[in-house]
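Hi again,

Forgot to attach this to my earlier email, sorry! This is the prediction with 1,6-di-O-phosphono-beta-D-fructofuranose bound. I've pasted everything inline since the attachment limit keeps bouncing my files.
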Amino acid sequence: MKSALQIARAAYQPKLPKALQGPVVAKEGKPTQSVDNQEEIKALFPNTYGMPVITFEAGEETTTDPFNVGIILSGGQAPGGHNVISGLYDGVKSLNKDSKLYGFLMGPGGLVDHKYVEFTDQFIDEYRNTGGFDIIGSGRTKLEKEAQFESGIEILRQLGIKALVIIGGDDSNTNACVLAEYYAAKKYGVQVIGCPKTIDGDLKNEQIETSFGFDTACKTYSELIGNIQRDCNSARKYWHFIKLMGRSASHIALECALQTQPNACLISEEVEAKAMSLDDVVTYLAEIVAARAAEGNNFGTVLVPEGLIEFIPAIKKLIAELNEVLTDPETGESRVFASKDEQVRFVKGNIAKENLEVLESLPKDVELQLCLDRDPHGNVQVSLIETEKLLSAMVAKKLAQWKEEGKYNGKFSAQHHFFGYEGRCAAPSNYDADYCYSLGFNASRLIANGKTGYMSIIQNTTAPAAEWVAGGVPITMMMNMERRNGAMKPVIRKALVELDGAPFRFFASKRAEWAKETAYVYPGPIQYWGPTEVCDQPTKTLQLEKR
Ligand code: FBP
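Structure tokens for the complex follow:
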């Protein structure tokens, strides 16, 4: 059974850039360089380094032999993934209706384990313009070992697949690049194309304007924050601490702040740049609460980025050491322990004294979360750390102390929220529906042009879709060397919030006013039909960046 919205949305035909509406020709730019560590990256990627940026322009009609393509959804869900697949499907079929698209099931693991489905018209039609990754499922298996690449080539050959499209974030696209290089070096004749996905918004650079899903996720969270702000301004008795997903960068928190104008929004990158301690952060918030209380406003909203804790310098140092001691230097894999107690004992016995002091100064549950849980890439699962509760408890303590000292005389009562999963599978906004469909369709053109080691890109997206620019960027161009789990690795550089960038500067110029006044904005739900200023606006972040 489908909702009325689902039925109506299924009929939506996403827009394409003008250049992709007919036959294309690839225009090649100059040879490229990686963003840093050029010599090392070049040596590691001899077959895929230095390739030019590609732009598609209208070209002559040509015939294409049928070709088969495989697709993988990797990592966390992001709104629009189904449209990348439907765009790729339509693109591949438009070149030759006998071409086939296969989907590997439950992430990169599906390629390794040879689990797949073939897409058909009916199958694809069920998922057009819907949120989620449930069409084939997603997974976080790391695709990085030769044995996996070799297992993959077996099934790719069996299905006659000429190219593999990997939809993922920075880690997954790094792995896509390694795979592209491996297949090129071995002359296996399989191309690999990446596609920039993540609600976190941290896979962007001069070539990639935004990762897909960021737009819809932020609009969904902003609707909820706006609703909370209305409630908060009606009841006038609670401070709402709202944690927002975004494992590392604070783009989501910043965008939501720009959309809703809360009383406070922490930006992890700023906390790090100013070398703030946890106590500094708590004092900053308590001062805002106290100032509002002095005017009779014992209510407000605070946005907390999910990754905050990792950016507090002392805690960052601690986490870096924890990541190292929890990795087996021989295998590069996470160490395995017989029990949680043994793991905590091992950690405490093997980290530097100053880090141990920081660890033990944290509340017990946070201490445990830091010592124990890791994702398959070896990262702390910050989404499990209840920073919003940690902060409100510490603010309450500080206010109680100020009350005793006669510095504060208000009431402080907190509510807590964590918005992440509420937005990752939302039905894509018009922006994401069009952007994703274009990214997928464009990937078919990169494949037809024989490209490998490229990421599908669509630019100029603050303009109407017809004026968007389609093409490809070599993944090696975005790489640098970084220390990961004890060793230097080539990785795509993650885009954090830039403190000298227009979105942050705009926020910083307004936040004192938003802290004091009740200047809330209520964005309301995503709209699909209606005036373009209601339905088709890109994120404020993108608008400010492109201004
Ligand atoms: P990706 O980088 O894979 O897109 O995932 C991002 C994210 O949504 C983060 O914001 C969050 O910290 C993480 O996934 C949570 O993942 P999981 O639900 O697998 O624990």
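The chain has a mean pLDDT of 94. The chain is about 45% helix and 15% strand.

That should be everything now.

G.
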